[in-house]
Design brief:
Layout (H helix, E strand, L loop, with lengths): L9 H29 L3 H27 L10 H30 L1
Keywords: Membrane, Transmembrane, Transmembrane helix
Subcellular location: Endomembrane system
InterPro entries: DUF202
Length: 109
């Protein structure tokens, strides 16, 4: 006899973890946009805006996925959402490294 799946608090914890991840991405992208605006670098502003859009899309996708299937404990991870999160984090890291290198180059002059 099979029993219905009881997900417990796991979906709520997962949603909270994704919420923290997206909040961290948004905060870092605002810092990236601020640095780009202060130093006149439009690439930093564009990268920050792109990360904000990706973080919003990612949060909406994960939230919808967790809310729509509360009884499906064996659901596969959403690869597209994971790739978007990894891409946004990589974009923030690369833009931050590029911005930091530009600041170091300006300080050496």
């Amino acid at each position: 006899m099979s029993y219905p799946c009881d997900p417990g608090l796991q979906p709520e914890r997962t949603l909270l973890a994704w919420r923290r991840t997206c909040l961290g991405l948004v905060v870092n992208s605002f810092l990236l946009m601020r640095g780009g605006a202060l130093h006149g670098e439009p690439a930093g502003i564009g990268a920050g805006l792109l990360v904000i859009v990706l973080a919003g899309w990612l949060y909406a996708r994960v939230r919808t996925r967790l809310r729509c299937a509360p009884g499906d404990c064996a659901s596969s991870p959403d690869r597209l959402a994971l790739m978007a999160a990894a891409g946004a984090a990589l974009l923030v890291c690369l833009a931050g490294a590029w911005h930091g290198a530009a600041l170091l180059h300006a300080a050496v002059r």
